Amino acid sequence: MTAFRGAVTLDGPSGTGKSSVARGVARQLGAAYLDTGAMYRAATVAVLDAGVDPQDAEAVARTVAAARIVVGTEAGSERVEVDGVDVAARIRGAEVTRWVSAVSAVPAVRRQLVAQQRELAGAADAVVVEGRDIGTVVLPDATLKVYLTAAPEIRAQRRAGQLGLRDPAEIDALAADLRRRDEYDSSRADSPLRPAADAVVVDSSDLDQQGVVDRVVALAEAALVTGDRT
Ligand code: DC
After folding, report:
1. If residue 32 lies in a helix (H) or strand (E), which one and from where to where?
2. Is the pLDDT of residue 226 over 80?
3. Contact between residue 221 and residue 31 where contact means Cβ atoms under 8 Å apart
4. With 80 as the cut, is the pLDDT of residue 73 above it?
5. Percent of the chain at pLDDT above 90?
6. 85 pLDDT exceeds 60?
7. Where residue 206 sits, what CATH number does that domain have?
8. Using CA positions, which residue lies closest to atom 15 of ligand 1?
9. What is the rounded end-to-end Cα distance, in angstroms, of the chain?
């Protein structure tokens, strides 16, 4: 097999197992890995720590512009820093998860982080980049674009498994929350969540994680062969 060179974009809603799949694909291809959601989460930490109202778009934009956000690009480890402080654990907490949608909807924040994402992706010979708008906005010329999806009920069951929940009413509430967030992310004015016209849509409802990784790796290798011929 030829070493993979180029960019694979992995977009899609929450709860599809996108991060685990993206890391697995990066490892298998020997590629760098960029989690753009971690960057929006780090920006949210900066906003919350500054005591700024996450719904005040102007103050959010100013605060994020002044923050130094550093993310690692290795599939095997997670490095996320804001102004030199390690925030890798904090970005997954409930407070950040609650406010990250508002922060990531601010156009100036998106412009800043998209520029940084392009720079980080451009520095690697081979890279897997995951997010919501990578194939549509960040890397429109990527070698392979994948849009990963799964039925909301399946995503809710997977999330419930991770959280150790069994009560059907709680699982229904998770599914409703996922639908609400899909709706929010898909309908925002700036860079809404949607598959790029040239993305391959992979439905993970009936596949386990390794099954999805294998499918994306096969698509990446096929894209490379096709690309070599042109
Ligand atoms: O993938 P995640 O849950 O870590 O993403 C966190 C939030 O950031 C989520 O609300 C969507 C947003 N996001 C975005 O708007 N654009 C991206 N490229 C990645 C994430």
Report:
1. strand 32-35
2. no
3. no
4. yes
5. 70
6. yes
7. 3.40.50.300
8. 104
9. 19
Q: Choose one of 98, 123, 148: the last residue of a domain.
A: 123
Q: Is-above-0.90 flag for pTM? A: yes
Residue at which a domain ends, from 101, 123, 145: 123
Number of H helices, E strands in the chain: 8, 8
Using most ligand atoms within 8 A of CB, pick from 10, 16, 40, 182 the residue to mutate for ligand 1.
Answer: 40
Whether 101 lines ligand 1, by a CB cut-off of 6 Å, is: yes
Among protein residues, the one whose CA lies closest to atom 1 of ligand 1: 37
Give the residue, by CA position, lying nearest to ligand 1 atom 14. Answer: 132
Give one DSSP letter per residue of 1-23, joined into a string: -PPP-EEEEEE--TTS-HHHHHH
Number of domains in the chain: 2
Say whether pLDDT at 1 is over 60: no
H-helix or E-strand spanning residue 38: helix 36-49
Q: Provide the mean pLDDT of the chain.
A: 92
Domain enclosing residue 118, as ranges: 36-123
pLDDT per residue as tens digits for the range 19-43: 999 999 999 999 999 999 999 999 9
Ligand 1 in reach of 41 Cβ (< 6 A): yes
Task: Say yes or no: CB of residue 192 within 6 Å of ligand 1.
Answer: no
